[in-house]
Design a protein that fits this description.
The structure is a single chain. This protein has 332 residues and is an alpha/beta fold. Helix 4 links the parallel strand 5 and strand 6. Helix 1 packs across helix 6 and helix 3 packs parallel to helix 4. It is globular. The N terminus is likely disordered. Bound molecules: nicotinamide-adenine-dinucleotide and uridine-5'-diphosphate. Uridine-5'-diphosphate binds next to helix 5 and strand 8.
């Protein structure tokens, strides 16, 4: 039977102790909130390389939340038994113009995806815990198959500027499957497509925060290239529900989690300018992108629909309207 998202309750799940790496980040902090509300205890772990303690301030003093300041690339000691691990620690923005973009954090990015995945899988093995890896649509590279199904192997440049992220995540997927096959760990892999919402860093350089910030300042929106490239943007609440459903399942093979509503970057810019009545329009910039900017990206979410009974419910304009107040409140 298909469970409608809004009716979703984890009534069949007993309370778990869950380790979330990347807890001070955009998606990680929303996962902390959701899982605590759903009755679990959360141990958050982060080294703040791209995240911020501000994203967790509201959880200070909450008896269901503890925080460990730690780099996941180093051996991980968790003081108590955990039932589940969500490994979300990694820089995630491809923008070389931002200090938080992974082209400027290349070794840290490979360590988070490589050593961080090894260390968190070790914790999963020691605790016999359910494990969910935050993988990415970037493992498809610049895809020649469209939309992207999980069965597609990808078109990835192994040495380009994006490779530190793409290949680390591909290594992470392979290692996760090795722990599942060899050590029989109950692992899952979420291939996350472009996600946006409150608590994104205003200056992390990704398209949505850049455009919102520029529109708020009534500046022209910076379109990289001709703007014909497409993405499919998922609002964070939808994404979090998909991740949680994967966590509560026993699915092992990768599952795309994203919103299939595909839009060109030019149309995204026009949509945001319309919302703000921004008179400054757009400017087309070249040579701003690290490596090869993927031309098209859209998830095939058939597996998520059938196996997890999940699909997104929040359209782009609704999601942007939910995001704008956060950006307004954080304007420098
Ligand atoms: P984010 O930068 O906001 O969050 C990442 C968090 O990980 C930050 O708090 C950062 O400080 C922490 N971190 C990084 N390296 C670490 C380390 N070595 N030790 C401990 N903490 C570390 O990014 P996000 O958008 O929330 O992404 C979260 C995860 O989801 C990442 O793994 C990313 O690859 C994945 N993902 C995100 C998207 C998206 O569109 N947001 C798409 C695909 C995949
Ligand atoms: N982009 C853009 N202007 C910006 C930031 C990004 O045109 O100011 C483009 C970028 O080149 C890419 C798309 O928007 O084609 C999405 O970029 P983002 O950094 O959000 O993530 P990606 O999907 O590339 O990982």
């Amino acid at each position: 039977m298909v469970t409608k998202n809004k009716e979703y309750r984890s009534t069949d799940k007993h309370s778990m102790k869950i380790l979330i790496t990347g807890a001070a980040g955009f998606i990680g902090s929303h996962l902390c909130d959701f899982l605590i509300k759903d009755g679990h205890e959360v141990i958050g772990m982060d080294n703040f390389i791209t995240g911020s303690p501000d994203n967790l301030t509201h959880l200070t003093g909450n008896p269901k939340f503890t925080f460990i300041l730690h780099d996941v690339a180093n051996y991980i000691m968790v003081p108590e038994k955990v039932d589940a691990i969500l490994h979300f620690a990694s820089p995630a923005s491809p923008n070389p113009s931002s200090p938080y973009g992974y082209p400027n954090l290349p070794i840290q990015t490979m360590k988070a995806g490589g050593l961080g995945t090894l260390n968190t899988l070790g914790v999963a093995r020691a605790n016999n815990a359910r494990y969910v890896l935050a993988s990415t649509s970037e493992i498809y590279g610049d895809p020649v198959e469209h939309p992207q199904k999980e069965s597609y192997w990808g078109n990835v440049d192994p040495i380009g500027e994006r490779s530190v992220y793409d290949e680390a995540k591909r290594f992470a997927e392979a290692l996760t499957m090795a722990y599942h096959r060899y050590h029989k760990i109950n692992t899952g892999i979420a291939r996350i497509f472009n996600t946006y919402g409150p608590r994104m860093r205003l200056d992390d350089g990704r398209a949505v925060p850049n455009f919102l910030l520029q529109a708020l300042k009534k500046e022209p929106l910076t379109i990289y290239g001709d703007g014909e490239q497409t993405r499919s943007f998922c609002y964070v609440d939808d994404l979090v529900l998909g991740i949680v459903k994967l966590l509560y399942s026993d699915e092992h093979d990768p599952i795309n989690i994203g919103n299939p509503e595909e839009i060109s970057i030019k149309d995204l810019a026009f949509t945001i300018n319309n919302l703000f009545e921004n008179p400054s329009g757009v400017v087309f910039l070249h040579n701003k992108v690290a490596g090869k900017d993927p031309d098209r990206r859209q998830p095939d979410i058939h597996r998520a629909k059938t196996l997890l009974h999940w699909s997104p419910t929040i359209d782009l304009v609704t999601g942007l309207k939910k995001t704008i107040p956060y950006f307004q409140s954080r304007m420098p």
